[in-house]
Design brief:
The protein is α+β, with helices and mostly antiparallel strands. The protein has one domain. Helix content is 21%, strand content 21%. The protein has 2 helices and 3 strands. It has a 3-stranded antiparallel sheet, with helices on one face. A hairpin with a 4-residue loop joins strand 1 and strand 2. The radius of gyration is 12 Å and the shape is globular. The two termini are 20 Å apart.
Length: 80
């Protein structure tokens, strides 16, 4: 699955945990979701995500990789 910028969306890992996001030239670029406790939870979230829902999370007004002002989390798992 790809985002609107044609970057592959996949499960990634950081020191904080697993998340769904994108890489650009091999470097983490954008975190789309909250952190999950394990890879399986993040993979299930991604598998259950429809392309339309993913597209609704992309805001083309911002460059990918912008930093979030807050760590506010929605009930649905998306980083808001």
């Amino acid at each position: 699955m790809n985002c609107k910028r044609n970057l592959e969306v996949k499960v990634l890992m950081s020191a904080t945990g697993y998340y769904v996001g994108t890489l650009d030239e091999g470097a983490p670029n954008y975190r789309l979701t909250v952190y999950f406790d394990n890879r399986r939870e993040a993979e299930e979230f991604l598998l259950e995500t429809e392309q339309e829902e993913l597209d609704s999370q992309c805001n083309l007004e911002f460059a990918c990789g912008h930093l979030f002002e807050t760590e506010e989390v929605g009930n649905d798992g998306w980083n808001i």
